[in-house]
Write a structure and sequence with these properties.
Distance between the termini: 81 Å
Number of helices: 11
Number of strands: 14
Bound molecules: beta-D-galactofuranose
Structural class: alpha/beta
Shape: elongated
Strand content: 15-25%
Strand order of the largest sheet: 7-6-8-9-10-12-14-13
Helix content: 40-55%
């Protein structure tokens, strides 16, 4: 009897200890503790309009990978705001952990960002900025200072003309703008227009949107050539892809493009392809706009996950790349910025 009682008790203890093991698993051992919970990020991307955008998307996809503990829902809006708005609503439906928005233009976001706020989903704005009535509609923004980019480019043009003893000649400029209403377009156009006001011999002949694409940049350049012919001295392209299109149009029309030619082309983004054109002088100045925002957005999300405060706005430091070292640095708003004379070696050291 005694032996039987001991056997029953031992069986009961074993059963209890097994149950306890099972319950420790079910009460959330490391697997369910939440530490390893995959974070779902809904990213509404502008489109695939430029080399810059391609590099930006690559940076986001490489950062928010499954291997890094994320599920990235990537939506390409094909440069249409209505597509971005429906993507954000989709992310809300899917109850993502974070919404990241690269807004095609600055206005028109209040309603959908209010829906995200009501759903208690933090929104991070990346690259271009949004103009909203209540800045609590987004948690943080990281991107470039586009007006500073424009000012740096024009400060270089001023120094370049002085170095070439052309600072008292009449300088006719055309501006192939980016997507109208995009922060990058607004800032770069403002930078140019402010500089034109400061230089009585600079004349802004025309400005028209090239929509940040090579095809539209070429089309706009062709129409400006028809209208102004050889009067054009400087083509101010608000991104590299527009510059590629403008250079094709100018070359086809018989212009010599470059420092010793009929016209000089300035650009923004400093993509590998853009900097390659800087080494051969086709683009005389390329002002950097850095697209590698993946790690910057991740840093914001990591801080939010750890309940740390994040900066509302974070600007990215950026360089200036020229075809030669005629101008070694420029000063804008009291701050000096070095100019990098661009070589193949410089390009080989860059990440995009
Ligand atoms: C700038 C970015 C712009 C790039 C273009 O941050 O928004 O959009 O300058 C891109 O190349 O299309």
């Amino acid at each position: 009897m005694r032996k039987k009682l001991v056997a029953v008790l031992m069986t009961a203890c074993m059963a209890l200890s097994l149950a306890a093991c099972g319950s420790s698993k079910s009460t959330g051992g490391s697997a369910d503790s939440g530490d390893n919970k995959q974070i779902t990020v809904g990213f509404s991307q502008v489109g695939a309009e430029s080399d810059w955008r391609t590099a930006n998307s690559k940076s986001m996809k490489e950062t928010f990978s499954e291997a890094n503990g994320y599920k990235l829902i990537f939506d390409d809006a094909q440069q249409k705001q209505e597509n971005q708005i429906s993507a954000i609503r989709n992310f809300i439906q899917q109850e993502v952990d974070y919404i990241v928005l690269a807004p095609v233009t600055e206005s028109g976001w209040d309603t959908v960002l209010k829906e995200a706020k009501d759903a208690k989903i933090p929104v991070i704005i990346v690259d271009r900025m949004v103009k909203v009535s209540d800045d609590s509609l987004y948690t943080a923004w990281v991107g470039s200072n586009f007006e500073l980019e424009g000012k740096k480019a024009c400060a270089w043009l001023d120094a370049y003309l002085k170095a070439n003893k052309k600072d008292s000649e009449k300088i006719n400029i055309v501006d192939i703008q980016g997507t109208i209403g995009a922060s990058a377009q607004i800032g770069r156009t403002n930078g140019l227009e402010a500089a034109v006001k400061e230089h009585s011999n600079w004349n802004l002949l025309a400005k028209e949107s090239g929509e940040f694409t090579q095809a539209k940049g070429q089309e706009v350049m062709e129409s400006m050539i028809k209208q102004y012919g050889k009067d054009i001295d400087v083509v101010y392209c608000e991104n590299d892809n527009e510059a590629f299109g403008a250079i094709d149009a100018l070359t086809t029309a018989g212009y010599k493009v470059g420092p010793d030619g009929d016209v000089i082309v300035m650009s923004f983004d400093s993509t590998n392809a853009g900097l390659t054109d800087v080494t051969n002088g086709k683009i005389i100045l390329d002002t950097e706009c850095n697209p590698l925002h993946g790690p910057r957005v991740k840093e914001i999300i990591d801080k939010l996950q750890a309940n740390q405060t994040v900066d509302k706005q974070q600007y990215v430091d950026e360089e200036i790349f020229a075809a030669d070292d005629t101008v070694k640095s420029v000063t804008v708003d009291g701050k000096e910025y070095a100019v990098t004379a661009t070589t193949k070696d410089v390009i080989s050291k860059r990440a995009y």
